[in-house]
Amino acid sequence: MAVATTTPNRWIMLAVSMIGQSASSMYVNATPFLIPYLHLEQGLSLVEAGLVASSATVGMMLTMYAWGAIVDRIGERTSMSVGLAILATGATAAAFSTSFIWLAIFLFIGGMGGASTNSASGRVVIGWFPPDRRGTAMGIRQTAQPVGVGLAALLIPNLVDAFDLRTAVLSIAVICGLTALLTAVLIVDPPRPTRAEAADLGQLDNPYRRDDRLWRIHLASMLLVVPQFTVWTFTLVWLIDEKGWSTLAASILVAATQVLGSLGRIAAGTWSDRAGSRLRPMRSVAAVAAVTLVALGVFESTPLAIGIIVMASVVTVADNGLAFTSVAEISGPYWSGRALGAQNTGQYLAAAASPPVIGALITGTGYGWAFGLVAVFPLIAIPLVPVKGETPST
Hints:
mainly alpha, 0% strand
């Protein structure tokens, strides 16, 4: 086996991976929190504001697989630090854009760079943690996404209110630039077999040709992203526009739900380690998500809706780490970058489509019907999760 020249503390690797992923998540999820400003103050329709909000997500989606292939070829540290530097550059340009079209274009470019962190940081965790601790470690790593969302919820709407759009976006650019330096200095690529050893073990073979598990996980994950991004994208504007909350109060609640969502991801990962299964817990989470969204749709106009939307914010993110870990384990060390890239591409395709489509649905039917109808997606995902014949994680 090839060995790394440095054997780092795995928890430091996890922490730096989390910081990198949190910065990327903060960037891509900052744009949905511009929707109240774009819609209520700048006069854009929800559909138009949703299109601007999805631009960074589209940039990520289109380059996710390419970054996965790059990670497979050149390693995790270089890929992640270069990608974060591109992200910071795009965010800086977006801050000085002169129209909403240019704002969307530069946010898109930053998203292209931010895509590097998804495969690279995930592979760092998979590579440095043993199988019986990967679920928990990946659950912790996956908290980077809700942490990023929570930071974006606190920073963006309040900085826009207190200062302006430029200050808000520049704050993201500075954070991402500093994170690029941190990953370049501290990340150590995990060891993996030489190509000759991997060939003998069959690890160079295309895992998509062995069976349909990866395809089914990708599709189920795409479906499960729709309720997640529906709740993330529209909770803030729903609280302000429908419930009459202040921007500060609404953003604090959204940030708090991300903390709870982080704990939910860790709990799901620990559950998967103890169960020796990533996919059976994933199917259970999908079922609970469907029930929660139906309840949210039914009770949207009542005071109960606040508690239910908090629950939905937790449940709809709990499956991500389970699917991510399973994909990496099935695909192996020489295909995991591309497989994780494909996993994230599908998820971000669904995520990019969700703001404008759900925005149009809300415009036509109201929040209650839109939330309830989104429950269809996790219901379809349940039978797609390939639990039959699943073996314990190895």
